[in-house]
Amino acid sequence: MNSPKEMTFLDHLEELRxxxxxxxxxxxxxxxxxxxxxxxxxxxxxxxPKKTDFITYQWFCQISQTLGQGNSFCITEMPFRIQxxxxxxxxxxxxxxxxxxxxxxGFPYVLYEFWRFISPGLHINERKNxxxxxxxxxxxxxxxxxxxxxxxxxxxxNFLGNYSVSEEVFNxxxxxxxxxxxxxxxxxxxxxxxxxxxxxxxxxxxLITPAFLRKNRKFALVIVLSLSAIITPxxxxxxxxxxxxxxxxxxxxxxxxxxxxxxxxxxMSTAVQKD
Length: 275
Fold this sequence. Notes:
This protein has helices at 9-36, 38-46, 55-66, 89-105, 107-118, 124-129, 133-162, 175-192, 195-204, 210-215, 217-231, 236-274; strands at residues 80-83, 171-174. It is mainly α. The radius of gyration is 23 Å and the shape is flat.
């Protein structure tokens, strides 16, 4: 194989095409496995947060009792039903849910293919410094997915499922609407938790600095609260619960940016001394 310097633009496109094909195949294969596990995925995973014995609701109930609030945060019922009102609604939900499951489970391999494409263009030192990229990025993504599933989704379902404008109206949610809400909560949380990785690379290429992040912390707070308002129901408690880990991630990102920036400054000063 030609070295990266010898490869033409079309060679790079061909290389990218095969990386995309392998990543897509991994999602299709894992999605096919998920397709066969229909009962487990729908009954236990997707519809888990609509059951009153879901573990998150038990945590909230225990916290409420510990704080002396009685059963104010205990969930006793979910007054809504889920139905499919289109002919192909259930099959479509089954198909796209399987693809989503394949993407989530196969995320580390998708990152691996992405890394294989960009790593030949990096210097040896850059490859060494980013050696744990796949592990860290996958860990943060899965952590965000779990946060979205166990925190954001139950908060949204509990609020919207119990919300009523009148006793004359009963909540009958469409299957696609329910799955869409869960999908948005999980994927949005997973991607938001990739913030430290983005900050690392943006600092490496000189787009941002730790001083910039510290200076604009108040603007970041507004953005975080806005994101929390988008992916959570419109109540203050839920938005605060979601905002806390995102703000922690932002502070961690400042520390990462500071570490990367110091290393770059040190390498530049070393190079100047050698010259």
